[in-house]
């Protein structure tokens, strides 16, 4: 065996060892880890609309206020160290004063709830809204401040399996009305 052949074998063996070492060290400590997706948000039909009536009336002339969600803005983030899912959501509400309205203001409530992957609601917060209507308009649009929900997770990758629900906080009569006459 010549010196040149021996040197080639040593170089070839060295290259194989180097490739093996590099393959074993494929996880770069500076490489960013992927972040799980945000949970999906839902506006169920039976709570996405609010109709307030005067007294026990159910006629169109008894309507004080009609409101519905016009959408929402939202985002989420994960605290990777503490294993916490942080959901930020800001609902947008459109409302119209009805023939029975007295005054230029309306009060209503909406909720934001979080459902875990097993189907159980684990958080629900109810928020008050006071809407002012301009003197010359019966329509108003309202975007609430950001609402934050935080939930500790055993497994961050379960975060996308959670669900966010938005809706109006309705009385039993209002919910029944929506179910009978609402959108399907």
Automatic annotation (TrEMBL):
Name of the protein in its database record: Lipoprotein
Taxon lineage: Bacteria, Pseudomonadati, Pseudomonadota, Alphaproteobacteria, Rhodospirillales
Species: Thalassospira alkalitolerans
Signal peptide: 1-23
Superkingdom as given in the UniProt entry: Bacteria
Keywords: Signal
């Amino acid at each position: 065996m010549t010196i040149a052949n021996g040197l080639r074998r040593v170089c070839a063996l060295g290259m194989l060892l180097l490739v093996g070492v590099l393959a074993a060290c494929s996880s770069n400590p500076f490489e960013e880890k992927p972040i799980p997706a945000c949970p999906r948000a839902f506006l169920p039909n039976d709570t996405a609309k609010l109709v307030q009536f005067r007294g026990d009336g159910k006629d169109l002339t008894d309507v004080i206020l009609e409101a519905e969600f016009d959408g929402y803005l939202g985002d989420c983030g994960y605290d990777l160290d503490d294993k916490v899912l942080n959901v930020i959501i800001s609902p947008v509400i459109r409302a119209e004063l009805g023939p029975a309205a007295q005054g230029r203001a309306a009060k209503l409530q909406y909720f934001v709830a979080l459902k875990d992957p097993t189907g159980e609601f684990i958080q629900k917060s109810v928020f008050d809204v006071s809407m002012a209507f301009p003197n010359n308009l019966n329509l108003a649009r309202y975007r609430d401040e950001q609402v934050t929900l935080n939930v500790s997770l055993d497994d961050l990758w379960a975060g996308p399996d959670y669900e966010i629900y938005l809706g109006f906080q309705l009385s039993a009569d209002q919910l029944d009305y929506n179910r009978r006459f609402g959108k399907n």
